[in-house]
Design goal:
nine-stranded parallel β-sheet; LRR_dom_sf; 308 residues; alpha/beta; 9 strands; LRR_domain-containing
């Protein structure tokens, strides 16, 4: 009887291993098919901007809600993209040569994440009306384009959590930015912005702001309203001081980058709340050091284990 049980157990284990291997192979085959589809689509689009996207790729987009077309040398957006309609959740058209974002963007009414980095888009050839008709976009990334201004219509995108417009030609932000009350991350580094509207203080959920490498000479006092602010990058500007209540009111602030400005430590130490900020800054720095040391020790352990 014991031998019979052993034989039965071995047989069941062998059967289980076969099933696992079959599932693994099917998964690998599916991944290979998807990879081949993406490669073929990219090759076709690069060869001819008017070519149709393979039907199987269109079905994949509709099934997953993810339309990924980065680095395809596109000058226009393929018509098949608009066919995805409300099924689309993410559209990545980064690193192409797009000149225009047409009104048809409104077809993708349920779009949540729109990535348009590194194209040739100008603010006048973006259909802001189409963009603002989207139901609930959370991420709008327009880095590395030719934008000079953000229109007041940007304030209609009240569901935005991340607004990223770095490495462009922006000269100002509209006061309507203050209507983005769900915004958490705001990045406009490496532009030509010389003023920040006081309405920024209405974005009370903001935790990360990067205004590095602009033409700023001051930050509005309303920055003190950003009680959730944890990181402020303002290096390489013409700043000479900071809002007087920044350290007192922004009680979670622990990262402050002012390199390349005229703000001195003597100035900062005079602000109310400086000591508390400095303690948070040092604690965060120490935690980062401890983490790095822990990572190094872990690597040593793993290296030793492999060599044994």
């Amino acid at each position: 009887m014991e031998a019979g049980k052993a034989v039965g157990t071995d047989s069941e284990e062998e059967s289980r291993k076969i099933k696992v291997n079959v599932k693994f192979r099917r998964k690998q085959e599916a991944l290979a098919i998807e990879k081949n589809l993406r490669r073929r689509t990219t090759e076709l689009l690069k060869a001819n901007k008017e070519v149709s996207v393979p039907k199987s790729q269109l079905e994949r987009w509709k099934a997953t809600g993810v339309i990924a077309l980065p680095e395809c040398n596109l000058k226009v957006i393929p018509e098949e993209v608009w066919m995805c309609g409300p099924t689309a959740r993410l559209l990545d058209l980064s690193h192409n040569s797009l000149l225009q974002l047409p009104d048809k963007i409104a077809c993708l009414s349920s779009m949540e994440k729109l990535l348009l980095n590194a194209n040739d888009l100008s603010d006048k050839l973006i259909s802001w009306e189409g963009l603002t008709s989207l139901k609930s976009p959370t991420i709008l990334s327009l880095n590395q384009n030719s934008l000079v201004v953000l229109p007041s219509a940007i304030g209609a995108l009240t569901s935005l959590r991340q607004l990223l417009v770095e490495n462009s030609k922006l000269t100002e932000n509209p006061a309507e930015v203050g209507l983005l009350t769900n915004l958490q991350i705001l990045k406009t580094a490496n532009n030509r912005i010389n003023d920040i509207p006081a309405s920024i203080g209405e974005c009370i959920k903001v935790s990360f702001v990067d205004r590095s490498s602009n033409l700023l000479v001051e930050l509005p006092e309303t920055f003190g309203n950003l009680e959730d602010l944890k990181a402020l990058y303002a290096s390489n500007n013409g700043l000479r001081s900071l809002p007087s209540i920044l350290f007192k009111m922004c009680s979670q602030l622990s990262i402050l980058d002012l390199h390349g400005t005229e703000v001195t430590m003597d100035v900062l130490r005079q602000f109310q709340g400086w000591d508390d900020f400095d303690n948070r800054r040092r604690l965060k720095h120490q935690k980062q050091l401890d983490f790095r040391v822990g990572q190094l020790n872990l690597m040593k352990v793993l290296t030793t284990a492999r060599s044994c």
